[in-house]
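Lecture 7 notes: from sequence to structure.
We start with the chain below.
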Amino acid sequence: MAKYIYQYDQWPQFSWDDHEIQVFLGQVRHLQGKVLGHMESLGFKVKEEALLSTLTLDVLKTSEIEGENLNHDQVRSSIAKRLGIKFAGMVHPNRDVEGVVEMMLDATQNYQKPLDQERLFGWHAALFPSGWSGMYRIEIGNYRQGEMQVVSGPMGKEKVHYQAPTPTQIPKEMDAFLKWFNTNTKLDDVLKAAIAHFWFIMIHPFDDGNGRIARAISDLLLARSESTPQRFYSLSNQILMQKKGYYEILQKIQHSSGDITEWLKWFLYILFDALKTTEQSMKKVLNKATFWEKHKDLVLNNRQRLMLNKMLDGFEGKLKTSKWAKINKCSPDTALRDIKDLIDKGILIQEASGGRSTNYELLQSSDDYSSSDD
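Predicted structure tokens for the same chain:
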């Protein structure tokens, strides 16, 4: 059976084709600067909305990669509360949501702080507030005490994809990782984010949550590379979109004798795509802020603000009176009055298509807005 990368004598001395990597790194760095420069030129409200939207997306997607679907409104409310941002329709998040948000915000907002064992244990404990992962009790806020295999397939026919270092090796492995992490070197922080992600995944120090913590570590270093806690793109969202490739490249490079060029290239490609995607998502944020700037003097109730925000965020399906009533927990009559009021104010119109049920849409598509509030 092929050896794992950590079983070679040179571990953890990684190597790569520097000339090839520098070309990709230069492209990423250029786009990074472009996106940050564009965001800095926007008004405070737009940046605040962009930050809230990006962090919400990042928390949702890093959990979704692991097959866990969190509630969007709970995640958004939890982040907003911690950042001191107020908006209509805030809800009370559960402990699982609070834990992931707490970890992600600590990573990005406190990116200058050292990463030590205590901080990692705190992140892990936050991810599993009940002490359970699904139906299994796990070691919380401590390195795992058992063997770790990444497997797939039905019981009795499992396929082993990866065998992590033994529990007795972990303290020494993590000491080496954290010493490297906290040592200032000439290594670019974007490259350091890619290496740290791979290295941590290979050690797999916890019973569960290793992927989410690895991505938080990458986010921390990316924030450090930009010298700002303001996140305007989501690495986790891009990884989720190319999840199959993510696991394939990890599985391939885990058997390398130390050359991680292909992993670094893959990581930089993903980061480049995440930055490109940001331009499109920022357009939605900008449109939303411009919409509210245009209608700032209108008197609206909380139900109306909540529903308009949902429509501006990209409402799934058609807006009907019944859906309005269900989301707002109000009567159909109240929902209809809310909708008719917005029609009278020139915000909503009835869809021309007609049909068996009446649908409503924004009078002017948010895509038609193009100005900003500075």
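Points to note: The longest strand covers residues 159-163. The chain has two domains: 5-286, 300-368.
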